[in-house]
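Input record, target 12 of the design panel.
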């Protein structure tokens, strides 16, 4: 090992692997510092290298999200902050990731996020939504996708103006995020566009979250309207055919789809299923949700 490190041009760590399982990490500097002590070479030259392992390495599964890897890596003690991170797959050693790797990929992710983010809400857009959906599918575990839609948003926008409409979208994004933070340790929220949002949860019981969202929207939505419209409970405006008609006040519809771990589908199939469920929701004309398992 000493001969290898002397000739190596890279500042590489030494990864100890025992029968396919990573046993430890020893930094090049740490290894050489042990040998640089008085009688260091004599003491260690014929002894097992595992004696130089100072602490258990950070080992993470291949599918661990980059954000979680970065957070856990930075929680290490200062003298181990730059140690390589062991990557495992199915419990076996797969490779390593370095702090340099994390910084590079994190910067790229932030750049992609900024390019794809909705300009109003700054939530992830369609590309990041598709990427996140692919991640959830790769876990081969049950998860839920909740499509969120505002009913009668267009007539509100036409009546109150685009600035008021933007306020509604920002308030909705804030409401969804707040409910997610209260009830879900892990989640993803994206803005498909217009008044359409999507949520991903690593669980197959989204009912409690849906209840909380509809309850909160019931108390919030009335504040978007004038006292007159609040008392009337409706808006009189022209429909898409140019005919004057009466529209109920805005409501929120949630199409909650549960995807089993062994169920494979693409984002288009999921969207089509959500459209069918949302059509049922909209026929009710009140804040509501429908939950279905994807067949």
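The sequence produced for target 12 reads:
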């Amino acid at each position: 090992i000493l001969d290898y490190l002397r000739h190596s041009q890279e500042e590489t760590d030494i990864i100890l692997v025992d029968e396919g399982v990573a046993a430890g990490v020893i930094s090049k500097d740490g290894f050489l510092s042990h040998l640089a002590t008085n009688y260091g070479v004599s003491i260690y030259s014929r002894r097992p290298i595992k004696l130089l392992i100072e602490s258990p390495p950070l080992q993470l599964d291949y599918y661990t999200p980059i954000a979680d890897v970065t957070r856990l890596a930075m929680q290490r003690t200062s003298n181990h902050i730059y140690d390589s991170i062991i990557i495992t797959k199915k419990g076996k050693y797969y490779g390593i990731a370095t702090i340099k790797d994390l910084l590079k990929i994190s910067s790229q992710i932030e750049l992609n996020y900024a390019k794809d983010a909705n300009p109003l809400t700054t939530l992830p857009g369609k590309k990041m939504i598709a990427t996140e959906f692919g991640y959830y599918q790769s876990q081969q575990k049950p998860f839920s996708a909740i499509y969120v839609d505002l009913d009668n948003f267009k007539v509100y926008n036409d009546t109150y103006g685009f600035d008021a409409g933007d306020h509604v979208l920002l308030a909705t994004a804030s409401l969804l995020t707040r409910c997610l933070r209260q009830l879900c340790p892990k989640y993803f929220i994206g803005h498909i566009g217009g008044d359409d949002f999507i949520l991903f949860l690593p669980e197959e019981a989204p009912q409690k979250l849906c209840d909380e969202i509809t309850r909160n929207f019931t108390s919030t939505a009335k504040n978007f309207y004038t006292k007159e419209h609040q008392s009337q409970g409706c808006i009189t405006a022209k429909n898409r055919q140019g005919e004057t008609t009466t529209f109920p006040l805005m409501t929120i519809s949630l199409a909650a789809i549960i995807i089993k771990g062994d169920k494979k589908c693409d984002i288009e199939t999921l969207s089509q299923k959500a459209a069918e469920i949302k059509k049922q929701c909209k026929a009710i004309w009140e804040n509501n949700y429908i939950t279905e398992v994807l067949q």
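The longest strand covers residues 143-151.
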